[in-house]
Write a structure and sequence with these properties.
By secondary structure, the protein is of the alpha+beta class. The chain is built from 4 helices and 12 strands. Helix content is 28%, strand content 29%. The strands form 3 sheets. A 5-stranded antiparallel beta sheet has the order 6-7-4-10-11, with no helix packed on it. Strand 6 and strand 7 (89-97) form a beta hairpin. Helix 1 (3-20) runs antiparallel to helix 4 (192-225). The chain is globular and about 50 Å long.
């Protein structure tokens, strides 16, 4: 085994880690699927992608073309939630950290909501988010899906799927998990973004395993030649 090949393996492992890491850095919904016309409970997962600052605010904007009449936020210690309505629809949800509280580097937080009467006339809700850091940096996750490659700063998306024919979506939600969960969210808990992140992690593990195997072969050859 040549040294050039070994260096190529190590370089590939490094590139794999570099490519896999950013996939987990954006704001997503979890679970990422709900039932059209039903009720749903889900969270906005917010990782801190910075190494030199902490996240202190999240603001999410709800669509006006598919309005939602009511949103309830789950209390979160150290954070103040605010729901802003325009007319009969919720327009924005924000969470602001209290003094001394933040999402530290290498950590994430879940901001949980319960939503009533999801739209029946769309297959997804695109909800742009703005993440604010305590160093003043503001990052907008506001790019909608295009059907092709994932944008650089994708907006959180809640996929909406038709409910079972002839079944009331509100009753189905409580019959299959309670606490606002619904059939779709209990079965399809992972979003496409999360799946890509897990795939990236698997690639990293495989590359590291290959690198360790190469190291073991080299050590064995050295002992034999000594």
């Amino acid at each position: 085994m040549s040294k050039k090949w070994i260096y190529a393996v190590i370089t590939a492992a490094g590139l794999t880690m570099a490519l896999a890491t950013p996939a987990a850095a954006h704001v997503i919904t979890d679970p990422g699927v709900a039932t059209q016309g039903g009720h749903a409970a889900f969270a906005f997962l917010v990782p801190n992608e910075r190494t030199d600052a902490g996240t202190v605010k999240l603001e999410v904007t709800l669509p006006t073309d598919h309005p939602i009449g009511s949103v309830y936020t789950k209390p979160l210690a150290g954070w103040t939630a605010q729901v802003v309505k325009e007319g009969d629809a919720v327009r924005r949800i924000s969470w602001t950290a209290q003094q001394g509280v933040r999402i530290d580097p290498g950590q994430y937080q879940e901001f949980k909501v319960s939503v009533d009467s999801l739209p029946k006339d769309t297959d997804k809700l695109v909800m742009p988010a703005v993440q604010t850091y305590d160093n003043g940096q503001v990052v907008a996750w506001d790019e909608p899906p295009t059907g092709g490659a994932e944008p650089q700063r994708p907006a959180p998306v809640l996929v909406l799927r038709p409910g079972p024919a002839g079944e009331d979506t509100h009753d189905a939600a409580h019959a299959h998990g309670g606490d606002g969960a619904n059939v779709a969210t209990s079965v399809h808990g992972a979003t496409d973004s999360t799946a890509r992140w897990l795939s990236g992690v698997a690639l990293v593990v495989a590359a590291l395993g290959l690198g360790l195997g190469v190291g073991a072969v080299l050590r064995t050859r050295r002992r034999r030649s000594a």
